[in-house]
Write a structure and sequence with these properties.
Structural class: alpha+beta
Strand content: 15-25%
Order of helices and strands: HHEEEHHHH
Shape: elongated
Largest sheet: 3 strands, antiparallel
CATH architecture: Alpha-Beta Complex
Mean pLDDT: 94
Distance between the termini: 67 Å
Helix content: 40-55%
Number of helices: 6
Strand order of the largest sheet: 1-2-3
CATH topology: Sufe protein. Chain: A
Low-confidence stretches: none
Length: 141
């Protein structure tokens, strides 16, 4: 008897076996905030210590709240899941509230990723902070 396993089931199992919790796996598989934003208010890019590249796109609303965020990422499952979680933490927030997001906040949302991937969380947070600060310095100051 042959059991048919879908690609996402196989990926889910591999990631789970590697130490990723279900929320982190879901962020990676869904990639709901991947892509670019046409006419973004800010685009910023950062390269991590492992060579992963993150580009963040920010769109603000009329009240200076973060209306939409997208990432383009050349990187691993840890980088992608961390960036997707970071978006959920800042979307709809003020600039100052979004800047309060830290690595621990993202880790709590993901619940767990392998220890050797914790630098991915740092990269996602630093990239988001860089984008927000560059927007703030360009428009508010």
């Amino acid at each position: 008897m042959v059991t048919e396993i879908t690609t996402s089931d196989a990926e889910r199992k591999m990631l789970s076996d590697a130490g990723y919790a279900d929320p982190a796996i879901n962020y990676y598989l869904e990639k709901k905030y991947m892509g670019c934003i046409e006419n973004a208010d800010q685009v910023s890019e950062k390269i991590g210590s492992c060579g992963d590249i993150m580009r963040v796109y920010l769109k603000m609303d009329d009240h200076n709240l973060i209306d939409d965020v997208r990432y383009e990422i050349t990187g691993c499952a840890g980088a992608i899941s961390a960036a997707m979680a970071a978006v959920d933490l800042v979307k709809g927030k003020t600039i100052d509230d979004a800047l309060k997001m830290n690595d621990g906040d993202v880790f709590k949302v993901l619940e767990n990723i392998p220890e050797k991937k914790h630098h991915c969380i740092q990269l996602a947070v630093k990239t988001m902070h860089q984008g927000i600060l560059e927007y703030k310095n360009r428009t508010i100051m």
